[in-house]
Protein backbone atom coordinates (compact mmCIF):
# COMPACT_ATOMS: atom_id res chain seq x y z
CA UNK A 1 0.00 0.00 0.00
CA UNK A 2 2.97 2.29 0.60
CA UNK A 3 4.00 1.92 -3.02
CA UNK A 4 0.60 3.03 -4.25
CA UNK A 5 0.75 6.12 -2.10
CA UNK A 6 4.21 7.09 -3.31
CA UNK A 7 3.26 6.53 -6.97
CA UNK A 8 0.09 8.57 -6.46
CA UNK A 9 2.15 11.29 -4.82
CA UNK A 10 4.52 11.21 -7.78
CA UNK A 11 1.61 11.76 -10.14
CA UNK A 12 0.38 14.72 -8.12
CA UNK A 13 3.89 16.13 -7.57
CA UNK A 14 4.44 19.61 -8.91
CA UNK A 15 5.97 19.84 -12.35
CA UNK A 16 8.90 21.86 -11.13
CA UNK A 17 10.31 18.77 -9.43
CA UNK A 18 10.19 16.60 -12.52
CA UNK A 19 13.22 17.01 -14.74
CA UNK A 20 12.45 18.40 -18.17
CA UNK A 21 12.29 15.82 -20.91
CA UNK A 22 14.94 16.08 -23.54
CA UNK A 23 13.42 17.62 -26.64
CA UNK A 24 14.23 16.35 -30.05
CA UNK A 25 17.52 18.10 -30.51
CA UNK A 26 18.07 19.34 -33.99
CA UNK A 27 21.41 18.47 -35.45
CA UNK A 28 23.52 21.58 -35.79
CA UNK A 29 24.24 22.37 -39.40
CA UNK A 30 27.92 21.90 -40.08
CA UNK A 31 29.67 23.99 -42.70
CA UNK A 32 30.01 20.93 -44.92
CA UNK A 33 26.31 20.12 -44.63
CA UNK A 34 25.40 23.74 -45.37
CA UNK A 35 27.62 23.72 -48.45
CA UNK A 36 26.08 20.45 -49.62
CA UNK A 37 22.58 21.86 -49.15
CA UNK A 38 23.47 24.98 -51.14
CA UNK A 39 25.09 22.87 -53.87
CA UNK A 40 22.03 20.62 -54.06
CA UNK A 41 19.77 23.68 -54.29
CA UNK A 42 21.94 25.13 -57.05
CA UNK A 43 21.86 21.83 -58.94
CA UNK A 44 18.07 21.82 -58.73
CA UNK A 45 17.91 25.39 -60.01
CA UNK A 46 20.24 24.58 -62.90
CA UNK A 47 18.22 21.47 -63.76
CA UNK A 48 14.97 23.43 -63.69
CA UNK A 49 16.46 26.19 -65.85
CA UNK A 50 17.75 23.58 -68.32
CA UNK A 51 14.33 21.95 -68.49
CA UNK A 52 12.59 25.27 -69.08
CA UNK A 53 15.20 26.23 -71.67
CA UNK A 54 14.78 22.93 -73.49
CA UNK A 55 11.00 23.27 -73.44
CA UNK A 56 11.23 26.82 -74.77
CA UNK A 57 13.62 25.80 -77.54
CA UNK A 58 11.51 22.79 -78.56
CA UNK A 59 8.30 24.83 -78.60
CA UNK A 60 9.94 27.70 -80.47
CA UNK A 61 11.27 25.24 -83.05
CA UNK A 62 7.82 23.73 -83.49
CA UNK A 63 6.14 27.12 -84.09
CA UNK A 64 9.03 28.79 -85.92
CA UNK A 65 6.93 29.40 -89.06
CA UNK A 66 4.12 31.23 -87.23
CA UNK A 67 5.32 34.59 -85.85
CA UNK A 68 2.27 35.07 -83.60
CA UNK A 69 2.73 31.69 -81.94
CA UNK A 70 6.45 32.31 -81.53
CA UNK A 71 5.82 35.73 -79.99
CA UNK A 72 3.33 34.19 -77.55
CA UNK A 73 5.74 31.45 -76.45
CA UNK A 74 8.73 33.76 -76.05
CA UNK A 75 6.65 36.48 -74.41
CA UNK A 76 5.18 34.09 -71.84
CA UNK A 77 8.62 32.73 -71.00
CA UNK A 78 10.03 36.23 -70.56
CA UNK A 79 7.08 37.23 -68.36
CA UNK A 80 7.44 34.08 -66.28
CA UNK A 81 11.18 34.68 -65.84
CA UNK A 82 10.51 38.28 -64.78
CA UNK A 83 7.87 37.06 -62.31
CA UNK A 84 10.31 34.58 -60.79
CA UNK A 85 12.97 37.29 -60.46
CA UNK A 86 10.49 39.59 -58.70
CA UNK A 87 9.38 36.83 -56.36
CA UNK A 88 12.99 35.97 -55.53
CA UNK A 89 13.71 39.63 -54.75
CA UNK A 90 10.59 39.79 -52.58
CA UNK A 91 11.72 36.70 -50.65
CA UNK A 92 15.09 38.28 -49.94
CA UNK A 93 13.69 41.49 -48.51
CA UNK A 94 14.65 42.01 -44.90
CA UNK A 95 11.93 42.79 -42.36
CA UNK A 96 13.31 46.31 -42.03
CA UNK A 97 13.42 46.97 -45.78
CA UNK A 98 11.79 50.13 -47.12
CA UNK A 99 8.05 49.94 -47.58
CA UNK A 100 8.30 51.61 -51.00
CA UNK A 101 10.48 48.79 -52.32
CA UNK A 102 8.09 46.16 -50.98
CA UNK A 103 5.14 47.97 -52.58
CA UNK A 104 6.95 48.22 -55.94
CA UNK A 105 7.67 44.49 -55.90
CA UNK A 106 4.06 43.70 -54.99
CA UNK A 107 2.80 45.88 -57.83
CA UNK A 108 5.26 44.27 -60.25
CA UNK A 109 4.16 40.78 -59.19
CA UNK A 110 0.52 41.74 -59.62
CA UNK A 111 1.16 43.27 -63.06
CA UNK A 112 3.13 40.26 -64.32
CA UNK A 113 0.57 37.75 -63.05
CA UNK A 114 -2.22 39.83 -64.60
CA UNK A 115 -0.53 39.86 -68.00
CA UNK A 116 0.19 36.12 -67.82
CA UNK A 117 -3.38 35.33 -66.73
CA UNK A 118 -4.85 37.40 -69.55
CA UNK A 119 -2.50 35.86 -72.11
CA UNK A 120 -3.42 32.34 -71.05
CA UNK A 121 -7.12 33.19 -70.93
CA UNK A 122 -6.89 34.57 -74.45
CA UNK A 123 -5.17 31.44 -75.73
CA UNK A 124 -7.66 29.15 -74.02
CA UNK A 125 -10.61 31.20 -75.24
CA UNK A 126 -9.57 30.65 -78.87
CA UNK A 127 -10.37 26.94 -78.57
CA UNK A 128 -13.62 27.12 -76.57
CA UNK A 129 -17.28 27.76 -77.30
CA UNK A 130 -18.68 31.21 -76.48
CA UNK A 131 -20.33 30.18 -73.20
CA UNK A 132 -17.06 28.85 -71.82
CA UNK A 133 -15.15 31.87 -73.11
CA UNK A 134 -17.32 34.09 -70.92
CA UNK A 135 -16.66 31.79 -67.96
CA UNK A 136 -12.90 31.80 -68.57
CA UNK A 137 -12.77 35.60 -68.75
CA UNK A 138 -14.95 35.94 -65.64
CA UNK A 139 -12.59 33.66 -63.71
CA UNK A 140 -9.58 35.60 -65.02
CA UNK A 141 -11.15 38.91 -64.01
CA UNK A 142 -11.85 37.51 -60.54
CA UNK A 143 -8.24 36.35 -60.14
CA UNK A 144 -6.90 39.72 -61.35
CA UNK A 145 -9.16 41.72 -59.03
CA UNK A 146 -8.50 39.44 -56.06
CA UNK A 147 -4.76 39.72 -56.70
CA UNK A 148 -5.03 43.50 -56.93
CA UNK A 149 -6.88 43.62 -53.64
CA UNK A 150 -4.49 41.24 -51.86
CA UNK A 151 -1.20 42.60 -53.20
CA UNK A 152 -1.86 46.28 -53.72
CA UNK A 153 -4.75 47.43 -51.53
CA UNK A 154 -4.21 45.34 -48.37
CA UNK A 155 -1.20 47.24 -47.13
CA UNK A 156 -2.31 47.86 -43.54
CA UNK A 157 -3.06 44.25 -42.74
CA UNK A 158 0.26 43.23 -44.25
CA UNK A 159 2.10 45.69 -42.01
CA UNK A 160 0.19 44.46 -38.95
CA UNK A 161 1.06 40.87 -39.83
CA UNK A 162 4.76 41.65 -40.24
CA UNK A 163 4.76 43.74 -37.05
CA UNK A 164 3.30 40.78 -35.13
CA UNK A 165 5.93 38.48 -36.61
CA UNK A 166 8.68 40.91 -35.64
CA UNK A 167 7.34 41.03 -32.07
CA UNK A 168 7.37 37.23 -31.82
CA UNK A 169 10.87 37.03 -33.26
CA UNK A 170 12.14 39.80 -30.97
CA UNK A 171 10.91 38.20 -27.78
CA UNK A 172 13.46 36.10 -25.92
CA UNK A 173 11.00 33.54 -24.61
CA UNK A 174 9.48 31.27 -27.17
CA UNK A 175 5.83 30.59 -26.37
CA UNK A 176 5.78 27.18 -27.97
CA UNK A 177 8.78 25.95 -26.01
CA UNK A 178 6.80 26.29 -22.77
CA UNK A 179 4.60 23.36 -23.69
CA UNK A 180 6.24 19.97 -23.42
CA UNK A 181 5.34 17.20 -25.79
CA UNK A 182 3.90 15.07 -22.99
CA UNK A 183 1.63 17.92 -21.85
CA UNK A 184 0.04 17.97 -25.29
CA UNK A 185 -0.78 14.29 -25.04
CA UNK A 186 -2.89 14.66 -21.89
Structure description:
With about 190 residues, the protein is mainly alpha-helical. It has seven helices and no strands. Helix 4 runs antiparallel to helix 5. Keywords: Membrane, Transmembrane, Transmembrane helix.
How far is it from the N-terminal to the C-terminal residue, by CA? 26 Å
Structural class: mainly alpha
Radius of gyration, in angstroms, nearest whole number: 27 Å
Strand content: under 5%
Query: What's the tally of helices?
Result: 7
InterPro entries: DUF6490 (IPR045501)
Region (Disordered): 1-27
Pfam family, one: DUF6490
Transmembrane segments: 43-64, 70-87, 107-125, 131-153
Briefly, what is this?
With 186 residues, the protein is mainly α.
For the structure shown, list the relevant keywords.
single chain; 186 residues; mainly alpha
List the helices and strands and how they pair.
Elements: H1 2-12, H2 31-62, H3 67-91, H4 99-125, H5 130-153, H6 155-170, H7 181-185
